[in-house]
Amino acid sequence: MPAKPSTTSVPSISCPPDKSITHRVLFLAAMARGRSRVVRPLLSGDTRATMDCLAGLGVRFHESGDVVEVDSPGIAGWHRRPSAPLYAGNSGTTARFLAGVLSACPGMEAVITGDASLSRRPMRRVLDLLEQAGATSAASDTLPVTVHGRRLKAFDVRSPHGSAQVKTAMVLAALTCDGVSRVTLPDGSRNHTEILCANLGLPVTASREGGVETITVHGPAEINPFEVTVPGDPSSAAFIVAAALLSGTGVIIRGVCGNPLRSAFLDVLDQAGVVIQRAPVASHEFTEPAEDWVVEAAATRGVMRPAGEIPAAWVPAIIDEIPVLATILAFAPGRSLFRGVGELRVKESDRLAGTIRLLEAAGCAARAIGDDLEIAGGLTPAALKSFEFDPAGDHRLAMAAMVLEMVSEFVAQKTCTISDRSCVEVSFPDFPAVLTSLRNSAQTSSPSRKRGILS
Questions:
Q1: Measuring CA to CA, how many Å separate 181 from each of 95, 104, 152, 153, 219?
Q2: CA 142 to CA 125: how far, in whole Å?
Q3: Does the pLDDT of residue 422 top 90, yes or no?
Q4: Residue 282, class by beta-carbon neighbours within 10 Å (0-12 exposed, 13-18 middle, 19+ buried)?
Q5: Which candidate among 66, 299, 351, 418 keeps its CA 20 to 30 Å from the CA of 360?
Q6: Is 292 one of the annotated active-site residues of the chain?
Q7: What would the pLDDT profile of 282-306 be if each residue is shown by its tens digit?
Q8: Please, are residues 170 and 130 in contact by the beta-carbon 8 Å criterion?
Q9: pLDDT band with cut points at 50, 70 and 90 for residue 454
Q10: Which entry of 320, 350, 390, 394 is annotated as an active-site residue?
Q11: CATH number for the 231-454 domain, one of 3.30.530.20, 3.40.50.300, 3.40.190.10, 3.65.10.10?
Q12: Who wins on pLDDT, 161 or 283?
């Protein structure tokens, strides 16, 4: 049973809305004919890229407070020849979802582009499956991609990648096809698409057996307008947890998505001896169950240990949290090893190399062994270095660096320089303000600077 939160007075932070769910809700709302309401969507660089691309297809958005209304002519009424390229910015989710849904729009002629970082990321893993399904496009392995939409027949495709983005791109295409389509892939990817479709009454089902996941879609499906509330993002909450743990500050993070496939971050911490309390939120307003995460002040004192070996089977569920997990495990008294993290090389940057660069800059030895990430651990306040770090435009690396900066300056009184903080706008625009709040709380509750992992 989940533990009840401590009654100790600690700061309370509302978890920023989930980016993955927001993208999916916006696409399905745009495919529906009529007006849908999205309560508490994440409005960040990535999700606004999705909104801008859908607006280029004729979808209108109305923002009021924490509500976005999506007014759409439905997928049948989308512009078939957008007047300008659909610019996905830094959002791989936007680009891949667009490739899927536009490929199944008869008469569609659209160009999908992105920024310099996105234009280096692989698109073939989606395009190959779409071509197997009968779609046509003009592209190599990267953006720009020119989509030539056509009416697709039901398809049965298999992906070697356990990718929720690839899976969802194919589901969006299958929703418009006549007949029963199937997508098979390695198990373990996020299942927000399947849950959302089930909540909306769409004919999408999932089965899992022997490490393989099969998604079945009965098309064509009529999507009616809807209203949903987006829960908090566990990937963003992970950075709040890290900042609290490393500074010895208690915090309650409210309204975090309680999807079991998004909680593997906490499983890794548990393996390292750090337990974060979780309490279900008694509310049915969200698209998925939500919970509060409670970090006790000095939660790691005397219990922190190396995480040992984190198996490759866990990686799809923690791929976005590995940089911040690595930051925490740098302070464990010994070696931790992430198996099979090669996918980090094709994220917004080479995130594997970037994570190693960050840890070494702060004073912790780390290395890549093939597709594995080894962290030596053993970092202490005395060993912390002043550092300079360039996150290469990668929001996860920037936030991990900002957590280390907070610890270095607050605990070790070292000076750090991060060359680009603005990229956190992609997923967590309020992160700098959250760090300031946690630092102020730490200064008030721990003036001796002797708490948390560094005690």
A1: 22, 13, 10, 8, 8
A2: 10
A3: yes
A4: exposed
A5: 299
A6: no
A7: 777 788 999 999 998 765 565 789 9
A8: yes
A9: low
A10: 320
A11: 3.65.10.10
A12: 161
Retrieve residue 287's tokens: 């698209």
Local structure of 177: helix, strand or coil = coil
What is the C-alpha to C-alpha distance for residues 107 and 53, in angstroms, rounded to an integer? 18
Q: How many residues does the chain have?
A: 455
> Rounded distance, CA 360 to CA 60, Å?
47
Query: Looking at this protein, which amino acid is placed at residue 19?
Result: K
Q: Could you tell me the two tokens for 280?
A: 């279900």
User: How far is it, in rounded angstroms, from Cα 48 to Cα 51?
Assistant: 5
For the chain, residues classed under CATH 3.65.10.10 are: 19-219, 231-454
Q: Which two tokens stand for residue 190?
A: 């996020």
Residue tagged 């079991």 (tokens): 260
The per-residue DSSP string of 367-424 comes to EEETTEEEE-----TTT---EEE--TT-HHHHHHHHHHHHHHHHTS---EEES--GGG
pTM score: 0.94
If one counts every other C-beta atom within 10 angstroms of the C-beta of residue 187, the result is 18
User: What is the separation of C-alpha 445 from the centre of its chain, rounded to a whole number of angstroms?
Assistant: 32
pLDDT tens column, 84-125 = 999 999 999 999 999 999 999 999 999 999 999 999 999 999
Inform me whether the pLDDT recorded for 168 exceeds 80.
Answer: yes
- Multiple choice CATH, 19-219, 3.40.50.2000, 3.10.560.10, 3.30.70.20, 3.65.10.10: 3.65.10.10
Mean pLDDT of 222-226: 97
pLDDT of residue 182: 98
Cβ-contact 305, 274 below 8 angstroms? no
If you write DSSP's letter for every residue of 304-351 in order, what string do you get?
Answer: ----EEE-GGGHHHHTTTHHHHHHHHTTSSS-EEE-S-GGGGGSSS-H
